Amino acid sequence: MNIPAGYASADHSRAESASTVLEDQLWTTLQSERNPPAREAVFVHYLSYAKALAAQLYAGRVHDDVEFKDFLQLACVGLLEAIDRFEPERGVSFRTYCTPRLRGNVLTGIQRLSDAQEQIALRKRVRRERVASLEPSDRAGKQSDTFQLLASLAAGLAIGFMLDDTNIVEHENAAQSATAANAYQTIAWRQTREKLHTAVARLPARDQKVIRYHYFHGLGFEQIADILGVTKGRVSQVHRAALLELRDLLGNTQHLHITG
Predict the structure, then answer these.
(1) For 178-234, how does the pLDDT look when each residue is reduced to its tens digit (9 = 90+)?
(2) Cα dist. 163→37, 112, 149 in Å?
């Protein structure tokens, strides 16, 4: 059934109008309340735009030495900075204001990350944050506690690796790797992805946010703390609790396929 052009145009206009009203409400709330939930609501609303811009820049890359998640992380950081500096009363749309800032932040950051040493340093910082979050604050000196600590650490890191490997961010490399993989690997990867996303969806709201922001959007603990309006230490605690909860929800992780 063909839809007349007039109806399609009218639907598009209504959608744009509804989006404009929602954005106006979000900015009005942020200006009046000035609290982390209002700021996060604005961030979440424009997150898909930042992701689309990151994907566009990633598609136009010249070299393959930087991963897509790094493009996305830099776009998210640029989005946060643009939200804090935007002045709605000036009459300029936020997308018009933030686009050059997001692009500039991504391109400048990628140029820096093109240096292999910068990438290594970034990966090490991420690993240190994750390992530190999995260490309980009240570590006892008993041998049994040591074994339990190592078991929890191993399980948490294994789930973290799987979240990294099967994250929700998709780009052209995902299709290429799926084509290159054999049938078993493709099916196993899809099953692992589905199990992980189902488990993440069952987490408490705050835990979900930390997992999604960190693993699916590449944000560091400090940036997540900034978004949620809590301390970095609190994000670390939530991260640990979320991974341990995922371990319980997934059961035995040895059967899950880690390499996509």
Answers:
(1) 444 455 456 766 777 788 888 889 999 999 999 989 888 888 898 999 999 999 999
(2) 26, 26, 21
* Structure-model confidence comparison of residues 57 and 175, the more confident one: 57
- Rounded CA gap, 74 and 103, in Å? 9
Answer CATH for 5-113 from 3.40.1190.10, 3.30.200.20, 1.10.1740.10, 3.30.460.90: 1.10.1740.10
Among the four given CATH numbers 1.20.140.160, 3.30.300.10, 2.60.40.1180, 2.60.40.2150, the one describing domain 140-255: 1.20.140.160
Distance of CA 31 to the CA centre of its chain: 26
Report the alpha-carbon angle 9-95-63, nearest 5. Answer: 105
**Centroid of chain to Cα 4:** 39
Asked whether the CA dihedral 192, 44, 94, 13 is positive or negative, the reply is positive
Q: Are 94 and 82 in contact (CB under 8 A)?
A: yes
Rounded to whole angstroms, the Cα distance separating 149 from 139 reads 8
Average pLDDT score over residue span 16-40:
88
Q: Where are the domains of the chain?
A: 5-113, 140-255
The H-or-E segment that residue 10 falls in is helix 5-33
Q: Which two tokens stand for residue 36?
A: 């982390």
Cα–Cα distance for residue pair 51/136, rounded to 1 Å: 34
